[in-house]
Automatic annotation (TrEMBL), chain A:
Membrane topology of the entry: Peripheral membrane protein
Lineage, opening ranks: Bacteria, Pseudomonadati, Pseudomonadota, Alphaproteobacteria, Hyphomicrobiales
Protein name, per record: ABC transporter ATP-binding protein
Stretches assigned to the ABC transporter domain: 12-244
GO molecular function: ABC-type transporter activity; ATP binding; ATP hydrolysis activity
Annotated source species: Azorhizobium oxalatiphilum
Pfam family, one: TOBE_2
A GO CC term assigned to this protein in UniProt: ATP-binding cassette (ABC) transporter complex, substrate-binding subunit-containing
Highest rank taxon of the organism: Bacteria
Cell compartment(s), UniProt: Cell inner membrane
Keywords: ATP-binding, Cell membrane, Membrane, Nucleotide-binding, Translocase, Transport
Family designation: Belongs to the ABC transporter superfamily.
TrEMBL record, chain B:
Pfam families reported in the protein's UniProt record: BPD_transp_1 (PF00528)
Keywords: Cell inner membrane, Cell membrane, Membrane, Transmembrane, Transmembrane helix, Transport
Family: Belongs to the binding-protein-dependent transport system permease family.
Bilayer topology: Multi-pass membrane protein
GO cellular component, one term: plasma membrane
GO biological process: transmembrane transport
Name by which UniProt lists this protein: ABC transporter permease
Keyword Mitochondrion: no
Residue ranges of the TM segments: 66-88, 100-121, 127-147, 189-211, 231-255
Coiled coil: none
ABC transmembrane type-1 domain location: 62-252
Cell compartment(s), UniProt: Cell inner membrane; Cell membrane
């Protein structure tokens, strides 16, 4: 497969796709989403947020409520079942066929397309080689480890050269170290194949690492769409900010171009507001001497983590923050410190 | 744990007595079929004459029973496997209800079931006089065993996800059923099949009501021979019955063992 031209991804458009289940629960409010060809888009959110339902609507495993439309390259596929959509799908539980060997699993998509046995096995072997699991070809599924199953599931989905690949929490069932390793592998693969990929996860680290764009979802609706950097540094609301990474928040008010809080005040842009909160990431703040900035906190805890130190600070009103400091910074619990915030890297909401 | 020899001896004795209580009648019955004259006992000598006579008298009955069991198997496979699949795919209140209704014939006395069939269809003479009439009864009675066996294995392998996997690769519903569902449901289908065949061969309640003198089955023939023949012939009949049913039971055991061994791995 390495010497054949990479499959070109499809553009996907969802318009007004909602989903109400027969028992009346609304899993998804009508949503619109444009996915450009070759893009990797991550649907991120807590369980029950509608991300899997969205994926299943794109796949054709669920049909949207009346009025919803799914377009692949401008062509309406809403009424097509999954087997006619030419998508590849990787399931959380992998859904490998226990009655077939690894290579038979990978060749199955070609088998149902009527490709002759010799050719389909040769093509399946190529895909296994690309995934570097060709030595597993003759194994039975129950003889594979979790990570191997995951690779076979991916190989099987890619063997039919789909226009779109859909991944439903593909790494959730694996342990942490393997997850990081496979995440990097999947990322490389998706970029090399230039295939349109839709990736569902509840893990923000996976989302930030893999996505060209991230769709953060909550209660069956889109909370924010943006690049990983947008989502991380300019979250649209409290929910996005707190779901994606550790976020610090200072409560206070804006008066005369300054944000005033219990710990002091700093200059901000924007009109006066009676109540405001300032949110920032731990690694964007810099510790300094107690008198060197407008904000003053007390050191409550210090955790040495090798490359960095993680420091918990307390404000006069009982608010707590977590920031990072260099490994060699001398910090004593109970001392007062100042905090410098980069105006480009905090948000006022 | 220290075990007192006395307790062990008592346990052994109770076990042996219980086993003997069950085995002695069987052994006696077999012996009765092999002795020249049961009332004179073993002194009269052993013979295979009675077995030969049973074969001579009842060979068509035995053959009919086997064919009937295979036909029952065929019908329960054709109905039970797709039905089990359909019910396993859409678990819900309606599926439960269907399952209950299909299981009902197991709970209802065979005689009542047979009476119902005779009242409803007994008027159709050709049907009433044919083996097909008994076949219907056997299918009603054995279908729930096939259905449950298939549904249990489909639930265990999460067949919905497997099917979604196959569908995502482009497989039509028919291809999914033949290439993914059936092969993975095989242990359940095999276990259900053996169950159906043994139940059909041994079924008496229903068959006794549904049969005609020309459509006797093995157990009905057994009752007939007990009622109208020498005790030796009836006993030899039991022996023939044993020889047919025991291999089936052993096959069930072996397959159950295989499933357990696989799980351990």
């Amino acid at each position: 497969m390495t010497d054949t031209p990479a499959p070109t991804g499809a553009a996907i458009t969802l318009s007004g796709c909602g989903k109400t289940f027969p028992d009346g629960t609304c899993a998804l409010e009508p949503l619109d989403l444009q996915i450009t060809p070759g893009e990797t888009i991550v649907l991120l959110g807590p369980s029950g947020c509608g991300k899997t339902t969205t994926l299943r609507i794109i796949a054709g495993l669920e049909s949207p409520d009346a009025g919803g439309k799914v377009l692949f390259d401008g062509q309406d596929v809403t009424q097509l079942p999954i087997e006619k959509r030419n998508v590849g799908m990787v399931f959380q539980s992998y859904a490998l066929f226990p009655n077939m060997s690894v290579i038979e699993n990978v060749a199955y998509g070609l088998r149902v397309r009527g490709v002759a046995k010799k050719e389909r096995l040769a093509r399946a072997a190529e895909v296994l080689e690309m995934m570097r699991i060709d030595q597993l070809a003759e194994r039975r599924i129950d003889q594979l480890s979790g990570g191997q199953r995951q690779r076979v599931a991916l190989a099987r989905a890619l063997a039919v050269r789909p226009r779109v690949i859909l991944l439903d929490e593909p790494l959730t069932a694996l342990d942490a170290a393997l997850r990081d390793h496979l995440r990097a592998e999947i990322d490389g693969l998706l970029r090399r194949l230039a295939i349109t990929a839709i990736y569902v996860t509840h893990d923000q680290a996976e989302a930030l690492a893999l996505g060209d764009r991230i769709v953060v979802m909550r209660h069956g609706a889109i909370a924010q769409i943006g690049s990983p950097r947008d989502i991380y540094f300019r979250p649209a609301d409290d929910f996005v900010a707190s779901f994606v990474g550790v976020t610090n928040r200072l409560e206070g008010a804006v008066r005369g171009g300054r944000f005033e809080t219990a710990a002091g005040s700093i200059a901000v842009a924007g009109p006066d507001r009676a109540t405001a909160s300032l949110a920032f990431r731990p690694e964007t703040a810099v510790l300094c001497g107690a008198g060197d900035s407008g904000l003053r906190f007390r050191v409550e805890q210090v955790h040495f983590q090798g490359a960095r130190q993680r420091v918990q600070l307390g404000a006069a009103d009982g608010g707590r923050l977590v920031v990072e400091a260099a490994a060699d910074a001398v910090l004593v619990v109970g001392d007062d410190v100042g905090l410098v915030l980069d105006p480009a890297r905090f948000v006022l909401v | 744990m220290q075990r007192s020899p006395l307790v062990f001896a008592l346990q052994l004795l109770v076990t042996l007595l219980a086993a003997a209580f069950l085995v002695v009648p069987a052994a006696q019955s077999i012996l009765a079929g092999l002795t020249v004259n049961y009332f004179q006992g073993l002194r009269s000598g052993l013979t295979l004459d009675w077995v030969a006579q049973v074969w001579g008298l009842y060979a068509p009955t035995i053959l009919r029973s086997i064919l009937l069991a295979l036909a029952t198997l065929g019908v329960t496979l054709l109905i039970g496997v797709p039905a089990g699949w359909a019910l396993a795919r859409k678990p819900g209140r309606l599926s439960r209800l269907v399952e209950e209704v299909v299981t009902l014939p197991v709970a209802i006395p065979g005689l009542a079931l047979a009476l119902g069939l005779i009242l409803a269809y007994g008027g159709i003479r050709e049907f009433r006089a044919s083996v097909a009439f008994i076949l219907v009864g056997h299918v009603l009675y054995t279908l729930p065993f096939m259905l449950r066996s298939v549904m249990a294995v489909l639930a265990a392998i999460d067949v919905r996800t497997l099917e979604e996997g196959a569908a995502s690769l482009g497989a039509s519903p028919w291809q999914r059923f033949i290439q993914v569902v059936v092969p993975n449901a095989r242990p359940g289908i095999l276990a259900g099949s053996l169950m159906v065949v043994t139940l059909s061969i041994g079924e008496f309640n229903l068959t006794w009501m549904l049969h005609t003198p020309l459509t006797q089955t093995l157990p009905v023939g057994l009752a007939d021979s007990y009622a109208s023949m020498r005790l030796e012939i009836a006993s030899a009949y039991t022996l023939v019955f044993f020889l047919m049913i025991v291999p089936l039971l052993i096959a069930i055991q072996i397959m159950g063992g295989e499933k357990r061994a696989k799980k351990r791995k």
